[in-house]
Design a protein that fits this description.
heterodimer; A: mainly alpha; 12 helices; 80% helix; B: mainly alpha; ABC transporter involved in vitamin B12 uptake, BtuC; Arc Repressor Mutant, subunit A; 2 domains; two-stranded antiparallel ribbon; 4 strands
Chain lengths: 282, 358
């Protein structure tokens, strides 16, 4: 109990819960659009943006690094679209190509920074945490950034809720009542990239996509109604991140991001069993 | 350095030979999932054998590779989740457990998570068997195994890659071939891990085969080209990495992506070619338009006058001059000196006949 009220724990827990909750909401929309693997690809591809932002600004200010990640997320998405629209290569393969190419670029830049005397003065130890994420490095300033962006993204969702739902489930109808589908696509994509860039520091480039995908899969086992799905996914994400952070604090050596993902996946596996059992009873 | 390069090229070839089948079967993201989730296999096997050089690590990794695929197929077959989402659920779980095990229990072992992702090819020559780098021997063996798999089952692989339904009718055991492919992919990626890291493994599997696929239609040539392109990417990447003293794996992955982009721009049906073709068509259309204009308004001094024709075509002076000069040099039209109007020459008339199907 004493632990639960300690400052460090609260900072980390609040930050991850806000992040996971809003990622879950955005994630539901992306999963329904069939973009679950795009999140993974963009998550990896945003990494060079972080290193480049560091190289330009000489600081590890999370805000600059986030902007870098955001810009590279957009570039990566553009390249994915370029490849799959202008050649016979499948979306699937273009995701893998962009993922490895961009992440490779990130590692190139990172090793360049390490070997370069210009950067000797600046602190660079934090760059690695963006690959696997490290919630224990979260500071108050990170919470501000996360909260502001999450509230911004969530209010966008609320504001365009009807448009988003129609855009995903019935594009033609949406078009006929005058909704600009392309604009909505872009807004949704930008929101996804924002959540990825914000989340990189905490959960890392590799696991960020599971924050988007898993809560939606979980919620889908319980309801077919979009409002309920969003609500369940939101609650599940918040609960899992609390549990994950708690586990990582209680058990020494447990990294936060992976712990959260394990809790999430575990709950989801339970939800499958729940669904099967319920299916038999009915 | 030569030995490092040799190890890398062998890796690229061992992966590359399976690459086209993976890319064409739309399994690309499965390699991404595999290369992350086999880490759990390595970690679990390591708990039991406590030896990083044991063959059991390879077997453990291959088991978890297959398990990832079986598990996600199972989830999607039971209609619990969509196929993509199933992958997105399974591999983060395995990867997370692996990271937890590694960070918690093997703090002092070479099994570093950074290492697993990026590898370090420079260390490859230090471990030796038969006076050769150990990873070279392993990768060469795997190359031969993969090569013989492809050679022996070439026909079946080809049919089942391009026409799943037909192969089922033919009684080809689609599932069996699929799982052998997956097992070989997992084993190869695990073996390649140690020297090149997870990210480059995915790149080796997918990027060269994507480039090759753009350049040729024939499956045989696709495979051969994949091997060549993979080797070229590796050599270029390694030299650049040496020159600037940066990560070899990262550089090769990046170069491979650039290679695909170049292939998209410059292949026979590529983007650049399409743009050039479009420009050509546009120009031909303008030239034909002038010819038809002249044909329709036979000898009308107003419509065809040297200085007035541009108004009737409704073009700028530059544009009409450009195309008129082109037609004049091609001898399709000539200027009638007396009336100073444009007239069709014999060549021009022939073109008109072609155009209007007279």
């Amino acid at each position: 109990m004493k632990l639960l009220l300690s400052y460090d724990f609260l900072v980390v827990a609040i930050a991850t819960m806000i992040l996971a909750g809003s990622s879950a909401i955005i994630g539901c929309f992306s999963v329904y659009k069939g973009q679950s693997l795009i999140g993974d690809s963009i998550g990896h591809s945003a990494y060079p943006g972080i290193v480049l932002a560091y190289m330009i600004t000489f600081s590890r200010d999370p805000f600059y690094l986030m902007i870098g990640a955001f810009i590279f997320g957009i570039i990566a998405y553009a390249v994915i679209q370029f490849i799959s629209n202008n050649s016979k290569i499948d979306l699937d393969a273009s995701l893998a190509i962009v993922l490895t190419g961009f992440f490779g670029l990130g590692i190139m830049l990172k090793t360049y920074v390490q070997g370069n005397s210009i950067y000797e003065g600046a602190v660079q130890s934090g760059l690695k945490t963006y690959i696997f994420g490290s919630a224990s490095y979260i500071m108050k300033s990170d919470i501000y950034i996360i909260s502001i962006l999450s509230i911004f993204v969530l209010s966008l969702c609320l504001l365009f809720y009807k448009e988003l739902v129609l855009n995903i489930f019935d594009r033609e109808f949406a078009k006929s009542i005058g909704i600009n589908n392309i604009l909505i696509d872009i807004v949704l994509l930008l929101m996804m990239i924002v959540m990825i860039s914000v989340g990189l520091k905490m959960v890392g480039a590799i696991l960020i996509s599971s924050f988007l995908v898993i809560p939606c899969i979980f919620a889908n086992q319980f309801s077919k109604n979009i409002k309920n799905v969003l609500f369940i996914a939101f609650l599940m994400a918040i609960f899992s991140s609390f549990m994950g952070v708690y586990l990582s604090v209680v058990i020494k050596g447990f990294s936060t991001g992976p712990s959260i993902v394990v809790v999430m996946s575990f709950l989801t596996l339970l939800s499958f069993i729940f669904k099967k059992l319920r299916g038999k009873n009915v | 350095m030569f030995e490092v390069l040799l190890v890398l090229v062998t890796c690229s070839m061992a992966c590359g030979i399976l690459g086209p089948f993976i890319t064409l079967r739309k399994l690309s993201m499965i390699t991404d999932a595999l290369s992350h989730s086999v880490l759990l296999g390595i970690a679990v096997a390591f708990i039991f054998v406590k030896d990083l050089n044991s063959v059991l690590l390879l077997i453990g990794a291959a088991c978890f590779g297959v398990l990832t695929v079986v598990f996600s197929e199972f989830l999607s077959n039971y209609k619990l989740v969509k196929k993509d989402d199933a992958l997105g659920l399974v591999f983060p779980l395995f990867f997370s457990i692996a990271i937890i095990i590694i960070t918690k229990y093997f703090k002092n072992v070479h099994l570093d998570i950074d290492m697993v992702l990026m590898g370090n090819p420079l260390f490859a020559p230090f471990m030796r068997v038969f006076n050769l780098p150990k990873s070279l021997v392993i990768m060469a063996t795997l190359f031969l195994i993969n090569l013989s798999f492809v050679l022996i089952f070439y026909k079946i692989l080809k049919v089942s890659t391009f026409d799943e339904e037909f192969s089922k009718i033919q009684g080809i055991n689609y599932q069996l071939i699929f799982y052998i492919l997956i097992i070989l992919t997992s084993i190869t990626s695990v073996a390649a891990f140690d020297s090149v890291g997870a990210i480059l493994v995915i790149s080796f599997f997918i990027s060269p085969s994507a480039s090759a696929y753009l350049l040729t239609k024939d499956l045989k040539y696709t495979i051969i080209l994949t091997l060549i392109i993979g080797a070229i990417n590796t050599i270029i990447g390694t030299f650049i990495a040496y020159k600037y003293n940066i990560s070899i794996s990262g550089t090769i992955s990046f170069i491979s992506m650039i290679n695909v982009l170049i292939a998209i721009l410059f292949n026979k049906k590529g983007l650049i070619f399409k743009i050039i073709q479009k420009q050509k068509n546009k120009k031909q259309f303008s030239l034909d338009l002038i010819l038809i204009h002249i044909y329709r308004h036979k000898e009308d001094p107003n419509e065809l006058g040297i200085s007035t024709i541009k108004n009737h075509l409704n073009w700028s002076k530059n544009k009409s001059d450009l195309f008129l000069i082109e037609l004049l040099t091609k001898n399709m039209i000539y200027i009638d000196k007396k009336t100073s109007i444009y007239q069709l020459s014999e060549l021009g008339k022939e073109r008109i006949k072609e155009l209007l199907k007279l």
